[in-house]
Specification:
4 helices, four-stranded antiparallel beta sheet, globular, five-stranded antiparallel beta sheet
Length: about 200
């Protein structure tokens, strides 16, 4: 009997060898160094509390091999978005901006995607810059009937002189209702981080 799309035994169809193959993961190690330098600068320049430890964000860490303790930066203004960083053994980063927006650096890392540490560091710096400058917002919208339909979450980064970056994805209806605090929609227009 044939499996998934006609392939025997439920095997996935063959893919180009470059997809899924990572021959030089070490090229992303500078991401760890760059993130630690960014954290040091943020601590010097902004009124922010730093917490380090494993398990600071269980959802962010789920399924990851962690290389070092997570770092959470919580601004002195509760209306400013926090930042949580998980350092993976890949080596890479999983970063939570605000409440729900998570980004991977690199996004994939396979040979076919051909991402570079330099480009990923630039993308990371742009996104962190938007968060600390108050150019970052998040939205959660729940459906009218949570158990029938899905909701969505959205994050927007607005770097000056650059194209606006928006990430929008579907969310289970119950989770969307929880994210929106029981409302139909919750908009979080995060404020700038307070300077020292």
């Amino acid at each position: 009997m044939s499996g998934w799309f006609g392939y025997a035994g439920g095997e996935e169809p063959p893919v180009d060898a470059a997809y899924g193959r990572v021959t030089n993961a070490e090229r992303f190690l500078p991401l760890h160094t760059a993130m630690l330098e960014i954290i040091d600068r943020l601590l010097d320049d902004f009124n922010v509390e730093c917490t380090e430890g494993f398990g600071l964000d269980g959802e962010l860490e789920r399924g990851l091999d962690i290389a070092r303790p997570d770092v959470k930066l919580t601004p002195g203004n509760p209306d400013a978005a926090s930042l949580v960083v998980a350092f993976t053994t890949f080596p890479g980063l999983h970063v939570r901006f605000g409440r729900w927006c998570t980004e991977l650096f690199p996004v994939c890392g396979c040979d076919a995607c051909d991402e570079s540490a330099k480009d990923e560091i630039d993308r990371l710096k742009d996104m962190v810059g938007d968060v600390v400058a108050g150019r970052f917002s998040e939205t959660a919208k729940s459906p009218l009937i949570s158990f029938i339909r899905s909701g969505w979450k959205e994050a927007k980064f607005r770097s000056p002189g650059k194209r606006r970056f928006t990430r929008r994805s579907r969310v289970d209806g119950f989770r969307a209702r929880e994210m929106a605090g029981g409302r139909r929609r919750l908009d979080l227009n995060w404020k700038p981080w307070p300077r020292r």
